[in-house]
Amino acid sequence: MSEHTGPEPSELRASIASGKRKRRNLLIGGVAVVAVAAIAVVVSVVVGGQNGAADAATGSGAPAERLSVKIAVSEDTQFQDAVKEVAAEKGLDVEWVNVKDWVLPNTELVAGTVDANAFQHILYLSAFNAENDADLTPVFSTVITQWGIFSKTLTDVNDLADGARIAIPDDPSNGGRALNILAAAGLIEIAADAGNFPTVEDVTANDKNLQFVPLPATSIPQQFDDPSLAAVVVGTSYFDPSQGITKDDALFLDDSLSEKNLPYVNVIATRAEDKDNPAWKILEDTYADPRVAEALDDEFAGNSILVKVPVKDLRDKLAELQAEAE
User: Fold this and answer.
1) Within a 10 A sphere around the Cβ of 146, how many other Cβ atoms?
2) Where are the alpha helices (DSSP H) in 93-185?
3) E strand or H helix at 13, and its extent?
């Protein structure tokens, strides 16, 4: 069963409602839908010198030099085909590269091997910047993913036995998010001064003596059937479609659009000195295209949602989180 508190007013929720209205109007006007899947991607951009006619990123309509981008992803999906097709129409040629890693996208970006990435939310980015004295910055928002508590054997969080083992992500940002979700479900209490990066040491009450099992976030869905685990806390979109697990299967579902979840908005990130690269405008327009939005809906049925947050808000929140992480 799923438990979900009522929605709180937030800029995130308002941006979703506005985006849906715009997409509906465009679709009524005859915009074709590309029925493909979607995941959040890691984007590495190399601006090329290929010739070709394209609309200028400034919106002047004048011919501009065509841009090419090389995009690294953590896994291959059909969503990449939708982005590639729409971006090509807008004057941006995309080549996908599968990296299968959550560390290299940032370290390679710092090293200058790539020019951007899009695999992470700003809380994860803030932790990386703080730990590595880096200056990576967001250029626009992409998606936010719904998270929840899931179990192979239980149907209610209250059925968790004393001493039950629960898998949570092993990285600071996502691990903290999992603990906050467990707290929101009434299973634990966290110290008021724990901030945005709570750890198991910040748990002040744990009546069921739950045991927290840290695992890489991307591997948690593969452990869903592990009989030694009573439950897992993870993003709904992390499950493979073949598992047939949706947000409706959650014992407890977090409200991804509440204002408290702004740190978990995924972004396209680049080095500070490259934040004005004209490729970002084309890529942002690509993510905003109704066909890309429909591809995301087709794949995740609302588990991951495109969001448009002002870049100033993203950078302000990043600076706040980074200061806390340091």
Assistant:
1) 23
2) 104-111, 122-132, 172-184
3) helix 11-28
